[in-house]
Amino acid sequence: MKRLNANRSTSTAIHCPKYPKGKNEAWFLTLGSQGTDELLAMKRIIRGLKASNRITFQCPPRRTFTLTLYLMSDCLIGFDQQFNLQFEIVDAKT
């Protein structure tokens, strides 16, 4: 994740006039299956100018499957994103 219009400041403060305290920008990475309505992993990440994060999950027993990765802001409306990811499990012995 990289902010394209970032200035040189490393501030993560967000303007939230109805929030009672100072608020820093953060995001939620959520991985799930729409077909089974199952949540596999969730992680909260704090934004910097650049962010690289890892999310781990236990693979379903199927050989091929599609999971959906949601990137949701905890303070910005309209910035949420959704990505469908295709997976294929291959045996290491073959």
TrEMBL record:
It is a multi-pass membrane protein. One of its GO terms (cellular component) is nucleus. SUPFAM superfamilies: E set domains. It is found in: Endoplasmic reticulum; Membrane. Pfam families: Sec63 (PF02889). Residues 17-85 form the SEC63 domain. Keywords: Chaperone, Endoplasmic reticulum, Membrane, Transmembrane, Transmembrane helix. The keyword Transit peptide does not apply. The keyword Chaperone applies. Coiled coil: none annotated. GO terms for molecular function: 3'-5' DNA helicase activity; RNA binding. InterPro entries: C2_domain_sf, Ig_E-set, Sec63-dom. This is Activating signal cointegrator 1 complex subunit 3. It comes from Eumeta variegata. The gene is ASCC3.
